[in-house]
Amino acid sequence: MKIAIASGKGGTGKSTVAANLACTLARSREVALVDCDVEEPNLHLFFPAAAVDVPVTTPVPEIDPARCTLCGECGKFCRFGALSVLKDRVLVFPELCHSCGGCSLVCPQGAVREVPRTVGRVACSCPLPSLTLISGVLNEGEVQAPAVIRAAKMLAQGHPLTLYDASPGIACPVIETLEGSDACVLVTESTLFGLHDLRLAAEVVETIGIPAGVVINRSDGRDEETLEFCRDRGLPVLMTIPFSREIAAVQNRGGLIAALLPGWEERFAALFDGIVKIAGVSQ
Amino acid sequence: MIRLAVVSGKGGTGKTMVAAALADISGVPQVLADCDVDAANLELLFRPRRLTTEEFRGLAAARIDPERCRDCGICADHCRFGAIVRNDAWEVDALHCEGCGVCTYVCPVGAVRMEPRVCGEIYTSATDRGNLAHARLFPGSGNSGLLVTEVKKRAMSLADGADLLLADGPPGIGCPLIATISGMDAVLIVTEPGVSALHDLERLVTVCRRFGVRIFVAINRFDLAEDICARIEDYCEREGIVVAGKIPFDPSVIDAVRNGRPVTRSDSAATDALRALRDSLFAELGLL
Q1: ipTM of the predicted structure?
Q2: Which one, of B229, B190, B142, lies nearest residue A173 by Cα?
Q3: Is the CB of residue B52 less than 8 Å away from at least one CB of chain A?
Q4: Which of B137, B192, B232, B250 has the fewest Cβ atoms within 10 angstroms?
Q5: Do B173 and A138 touch (CB under 8 A)?
Q6: Can you tell me the distance from the alpha carbon of B108 to that of A9, in angstroms, rounded to the nearest whole number?
Q7: Which 262-281 residues of chain B touch chain A by CB within 8 A?
Q8: Cβ within 8 Å, pair B203-A140
Q9: pTM over cut 0.80
């Protein structure tokens, strides 16, 4: 079973929920936790351990000047502006390349070769006996987040139970993360922004067709509007985490409330039962 | 004109709250841009009056004409994005189509065409604190970096007579963030005292340095973990980054957001800190 943890708004507590859920589940079974927030991965801060790095590469064009006749076909074809054919040479802008392979297809001289370019890495570690942590890390200055997410998810393949921690937002990195998930947990907070962005995130999971439930984080007890929205959209509220300075203090220091504060392991175990129910898959 | 983007690396540190407060009390002619097109929230605090609405067209997407398709599957073999799928017939899955056009090139019978696709809407609006350029990305659409660039262009077209372009940026360090900070004079990074936020701050600074923008930091809710706050200040000092302000944890901030207004519309400890932030930042930027 694959569970994605997502949210439209940033900072609502996705990673917190993912880390606590993983820590709770690892006490009774094998869990793979995948950090798909490759722009700002944070799960390793909750689970410090030695990691093995696997580089993530994408193919980009390299022009053979001996064969190239400067005909301009590659530059004309590339819709991403990654190739510019000048009078005496072809300029390649690898950071703009989407690795579609079009340039090497259209080149009549066979002068375009694809070479791997490193855009990030996947760090794998075993911080707890039953927990495998797989973190996607996009290199600073790179934009191909989906390629790193794909690589991280691929390395987690074969695990019976996998958690995906998504990035905030509703664009391509989130789609890449949600793909293939059996259920999605949307983490929100009861503010004007939280509800506005929850609505967007709910639309995304609906578009992709993944059953979803909601966790309300940092609740001050005034959650009526969020609860009403969830009721209207048929989204079960799986858990409510109150705002407290005690919880904030544990989390700000990279601690896990499931391990450090009494009662929370049971609550995260109950969250998992709720997720299994909405996913409708047999465990 | 000074171009300033409020960014954060980690989400939820208070970017929009700070951007709205600066816009509210800037006291200079300005134009606003909401560059967090995935989850645009600035308008919720300023209740703008809409001036214009335009379609946002991202890169074209492929479409297969079922009348012409001979069912050979060559397009699917060449698509690197898994965007061509076989249901009853070969179809393009728009969520995965990058718009590269390889399928149109390899199709032996000319059955695949590229068609424009609408990925969102771009707006210009009037607020009582200046004009605002903003947008809505349709859920699941790509091209968010492209949309940010369009929002900035609209903001520039509304900037006549403005001394300040103030942009509310996206979280992260990827495509939309890079589109936001390119061409800016300065960024204000809003962080908070937590190990995740500090880690994300360091990555964001690395990216910002490549774009040659001046970097300032504001520490939000600084008193929730004073020891980690001290670590952030140490880091900034080592890197030669000015900490332009520190904002205390203040329940009046939550109330202001709940009521849909900038926190600076009423007096509070946070308002005092945001005024001090504005003064030191604007002095650095030569806006005072």
Answers
A1: 0.92
A2: B142
A3: no
A4: B250
A5: yes
A6: 45
A7: none
A8: yes
A9: yes
Q: How far apart are CA B199 and CA B195, in angstroms?
A: 6
Please count the other Cβ atoms lying within 10 Å of the Cβ belonging to residue A225: 14
The shortest CB-CB distance from B39 to any of A100, A102, A200 is to A200
Sign of torsion over alpha carbons B19, B24, B27, B33? positive
Say yes or no for a CB contact (<8 Å) between B12 and A10: yes
Q: Do B10 and A207 touch (CB under 8 A)?
A: no
The beta-strand segments (E) located in A24-96 are 31-35, 52-63, 83-85, 90-92
Encoding tokens for residue A221? 């007890």
Instruction: Determine the Cα–Cα distance for residues A243 and A245; give it in Å rounded to an integer.
Output: 7
Q: Give the Cβ contact number of residue A69 at 10 Å.
A: 10
User: What residue of A is the nearest CA neighbor of B41?
Assistant: A193
Residues of A in contact with B196 (CB under 8 A): 15, 40, 42, 45, 254
Cβ neighbours of residue B164 closer than 8 Å, sequence gap 6 or more = B1, B2, B3, B4, B26, B28, B29, B30, B31, B287
What would the pLDDT profile of A1-11 be if each residue is shown by its tens digit? 999 999 999 99
What CA dihedral angle connects A135, A139, A141 and A144, to 10 degrees? -70
Chain A hits for B178, Cβ within 8 Å: 141, 143
pLDDT at A50 over 90: yes
CB within 8 Å of B235: residues ≥ 6 apart: B198, B201, B202
* Token reading at A67: 């064969």
Q: Which residues have a Cβ under 8 Å from the Cβ of A93 and sit 6 or more positions away?
A: A81, A82, A83, A84
Q: How confident is the model at residue A227 (pLDDT cuts 50, 70, 90)?
A: very high
Helix, strand, or coil (residue A45): helix
What tokens does A256 get? Answer: 């896990």
At A202, the amino acid letter reads A
CB-based contact B38 A171, cutoff 8 Å: yes
